[in-house]
């Protein structure tokens, strides 16, 4: 599978780099007829790909072939050391199957593809890429807030 090391197992988080700063995330679902699939939060159609203030109202969890989502990816189970992953077959897969096709509001800060992937795998929402953005922005805004200029 692509550029993945180690080989993904059902329930693993896959990271698909988009650019220098951001990546797209999904959950490796396993194979169907020999084709590897990933469950991921994505915009439903081309009209909603232009995000309004970082939000897209017409988003959903989709099940797509891994190669359709991206050829370059890596297994990124980033919270395994602090949060045990949930069992794929009894918890994660049923949660994915239940979410497929449902309306979900994508929000770059509060519910992006990384949030959705960690929610499936660990039962909690976390986005390390957004935390890095906050780490850069917070010091810039801290002083004006303290001085009550904002």
TrEMBL record:
<dbReference type="GO" id="GO:0008970">
    <property type="term" value="F:phospholipase A1 activity"/>
</dbReference>
<keyword id="KW-0443">Lipid metabolism</keyword>
<dbReference type="GO" id="GO:0070292">
    <property type="term" value="P:N-acylphosphatidylethanolamine metabolic process"/>
</dbReference>
<dbReference type="InterPro" id="IPR007053">
    <property type="entry name" value="LRAT_dom"/>
</dbReference>
<dbReference type="GO" id="GO:0016410">
    <property type="term" value="F:N-acyltransferase activity"/>
</dbReference>
<dbReference type="InterPro" id="IPR051496">
    <property type="entry name" value="H-rev107_PLA/AT"/>
</dbReference>
<keyword id="KW-0378">Hydrolase</keyword>
<dbReference type="Pfam" id="PF04970">
    <property type="entry name" value="LRAT"/>
</dbReference>
<keyword id="KW-0808">Transferase</keyword>
<comment type="similarity">
    <text>Belongs to the H-rev107 family.</text>
</comment>
<feature type="domain" description="LRAT">
    <location>
        <begin position="14"/>
        <end position="129"/>
    </location>
</feature>
<dbReference type="GO" id="GO:0005737">
    <property type="term" value="C:cytoplasm"/>
</dbReference>
<protein>
    <recommendedName>
        <fullName>LRAT domain-containing protein</fullName>
    </recommendedName>
</protein>
<dbReference type="GO" id="GO:0004623">
    <property type="term" value="F:phospholipase A2 activity"/>
</dbReference>
